[in-house]
UniProtKB/TrEMBL annotation:
Protein name in UniProt: 3-isopropylmalate dehydratase large subunit
Biological process (GO), any one: oxoacid metabolic process
Residues of the Aconitase/3-isopropylmalate dehydratase large subunit alpha/beta/alpha domain: 22-225, 259-384
GO molecular function: iron-sulfur cluster binding; lyase activity; metal ion binding
InterPro entries: Acnase/IPM_dHydase_lsu_aba_1/3, Acoase/IPM_deHydtase_lsu_aba, Aconitase_4Fe-4S_dom, IPM_dehydratase_rel_enz
Top-level taxonomy: Bacteria, Bacillati, Bacillota, Clostridia, Eubacteriales
UniProt keyword terms in alphabetical order: Iron, Iron-sulfur, Lyase, Metal-binding
Length: 391
């Protein structure tokens, strides 16, 4: 068996597993945040919040913190009380977005099993973790029993070879996959490997795994060496890629940035779970240092965590970004969930590093959202137009 099926077999105490098989898995960690946990608590009340001794639970306030509404604040208070009673591991002081806080605070290792009521728990796949997204209602079973049922998905192997050019980031590679292979990865597990990962930073690995669920991947993870022969096999030459951009209404509607060169924008967003790590902030600051963003553009920057924000301060990046005209938000999700910190009007055209560009995602359903890399977004914010980053 390869790494994926071997890890599932071990976690389910079976000699082997095959695609399509129903298996019972014990997760090492259960994740949540304030975006979905109001629904979790509603469903969980039916058992009086029964919690198995086997469950290790981690919850962050990142979608709506500080609270933008009375109902959000009421949920915060309800969660505080429940966390105290059940000994849940809560992050309630602006520590940052779930997936970044997880990487900073927990020891993650290959083959570890994680479940969470969030669509992007596969970010942990950068560490070789097998992370599966569940609905709020589905999360009740592992909370109460310590186990969840998985129909073993088929596997897709994507080998990424060679080093990209200087104007290409992990986001461009992820967008290329969404644009060309979304039909192949939908409903499947994606194993990533290849020589690209020999030089890729952990920040880049997390960015890549983070975005692939938008193409329907059940999970995505990085393995040291290619394991072909089990499932579909694809190879991508990172050295031949060009900057990519997703156009409305879906992350899978992907084109080269040059095809949209010169299209006006009014909002630029960098940060959150997809591109709010230190590597992204350094790229943004390198573009904006000594310059001023276009007068018609609002540039919103959200560090993925308090640790990243502190590093930005120590390196002088925060001063560079603010001096350019950017607005730095508290660590967390920022505008991405569409709750606060920069909602879009019907007339806005936004270029962002967020994870979804469906109508109404960040405000008005009539706003246009384009997904790109931090480098593309920063350069576009300077010009006030979608701009292909040059070599």
């Amino acid at each position: 068996m390869n790494f994926f099926y071997q890890s599932l077999a071990q976690a389910s105490s079976l000699p082997n597993v095959v695609a399509g098989q129903d298996i019972k898995l014990k997760p090492d960690l259960i994740l949540g945040h304030d975006g979905t946990w109001p629904k979790v608590l509603t469903a969980w009340k039916n058992s009086g919040y029964k919690l198995t001794d086997q469950a290790k639970v981690m919850v962050t306030l990142d979608h709506a913190y500080p609270a933008p509404s009375i109902s959000d604040r009421m949920f915060h208070q309800e969660l505080y009380q429940l966390g105290k009673e059940k000994d849940l591991k809560l992050y309630t002081h602006g520590e940052g977005v779930l997936h970044q806080v997880l990487a900073e605070e927990e020891t993650l290792s290959p083959g570890m099993i994680i479940v969470g009521a969030d669509g992007h728990v596969a970010t942990a796949g950068a560490f070789g973790v097998l992370a599966f997204s569940l609905s709020a209602e589905q999360l009740i079973t592992p909370l109460e029993t310590g186990y969840f049922t998985l129909i073993v998905p088929e596997l897709v192997n994507i080998t990424i070879e060679n080093n990209p050019r200087a104007n290409i980031s992990a986001r461009d590679i992820a967008l290329k996959i969404l644009g060309t292979l979304s039909g192949e990865i939908k409903g499947k597990a994606v194993a990533l490997s290849g020589s690209y990962f020999e030089q890729a930073s952990m920040d880049s690995k997390m960015a890549l795994c983070n975005l692939l669920p938008e193409g329907g991947a059940v999970t995505a993870f990085i393995i040291p060496t290619p394991e072909k022969g089990e499932g579909l096999d694809f190879t991508i030459d990172a050295g031949s890629l060009e900057p990519m951009i997703a156009v409305p209404p879906a992350p899978t509607s992907v084109l080269p940035v040059k095809n949209l060169e010169g299209r006006n924008i009014t909002v630029a967003i960098i940060g959150g779970c997809s591109a709010g790590r230190l590597e992204d902030m350094k790229v943004c600051a390198s573009v904006l240092e000594g310059k001023t963003i276009h007068p018609q553009v609002t540039l919103i920057i959200t560090p993925a965590s308090r640790t990243v924000a502190n590093q930005m301060d120590e390196l002088g990046l925060s001063t560079i970004l603010r001096s350019s005209g950017a607005v730095i938000m508290p660590p967390g999700c920022g505008p991405c969930p569409g709750k606060h910190f920069g909602l879009l009007s019907p007339w806005d055209k936004a270029i962002t590093t967020t994870i979804r560009n469906s109508p109404g995602r960040i405000g008005s359903e009539d706003a246009e959202i384009y997904l790109a890399s931090p480098l593309t977004v920063a350069q576009s914010a300077l010009r006030g137009k979608i701009s292909e980053p040059r070599q």
